[in-house]
């Protein structure tokens, strides 16, 4: 992966590492396993992560190249996709690009941090749950943080301090699934992404 040079690249890389650890540990037979997301298999969760990030970034004029083939090899596809995202957002000209978002003026980097980085944390838990793994996230009563600095963002703390539940990464049209704002996931201590958002 390219060296990171922007806050969003650092946050993205921090959350990506434990996500890839879970993805790389999914056996070939595990990609068809059901997840806590309604109607989504483990492969479908990876498809969602790749598709939503690509939709947002390419919509902002970021060239991510051809879409990877998630159906053939979800782990390789996610790794290739994430490498392209990191390369793009490591450029301050991309990360700091301003635009008028649905909720007001923002930047590409802030939108990624507030929505899509969080989505990676939530779906890491979903993938781990579906494939019998430990997501590496602290339990509801624990005060320990997760391994990645930015991975402590949680359903309850994100709802309370960052944005209302309606502000979630979109589910591609025509596909059911599960919102990052869904209940039923554990609570964890807040990480750097949530703290930075709460203090803005």
TrEMBL record:
Compositionally biased spans, kind Low complexity: 135-165
Name assigned to this protein: Uncharacterized protein (TIGR03086 family)
Top-level taxon of origin: Bacteria
Pfam families according to UniProt: MDMPI_N
Region Disordered: start-end pairs: 133-200
A molecular function GO annotation: metal ion binding
Residue intervals of the Mycothiol-dependent maleylpyruvate isomerase metal-binding domain: 15-128
Source organism of the structure: Geodermatophilus normandii
């Amino acid at each position: 992966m390219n060296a990171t040079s922007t806050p969003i690249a650092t946050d993205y890389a921090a959350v990506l590492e434990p996500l890839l650890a879970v993805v790389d540990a999914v056996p070939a037979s595990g990609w068809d396993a059901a997840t806590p997301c309604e109607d989504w298999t483990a492969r479908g969760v990876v498809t969602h992560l790749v598709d939503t990030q690509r939709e947002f970034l390419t919509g902002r004029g970021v060239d991510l190249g051809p879409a990877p083939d998630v159906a053939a090899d979800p782990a390789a596809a996610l790794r290739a996709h994430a490498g392209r995202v990191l390369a793009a957002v490591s450029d301050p000209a991309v990360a700091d690009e301003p635009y008028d978002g649905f909720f007001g003026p923002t930047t590409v980097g802030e939108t990624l941090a507030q929505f899509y980085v969080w989505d990676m944390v939530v779906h890491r838990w979903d993938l781990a749950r579906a494939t019998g793994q430990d997501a590496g996230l602290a339990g509801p009563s624990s005060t320990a943080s997760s391994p990645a600095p930015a991975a402590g963002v949680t359903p309850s703390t994100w709802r309370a301090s960052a944005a209302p539940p309606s502000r979630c990464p979109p589910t591609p049209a025509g596909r059911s699934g599960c919102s990052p704002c869904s209940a039923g996931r554990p609570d964890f201590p807040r990480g750097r992404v949530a703290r930075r958002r709460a203090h803005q």
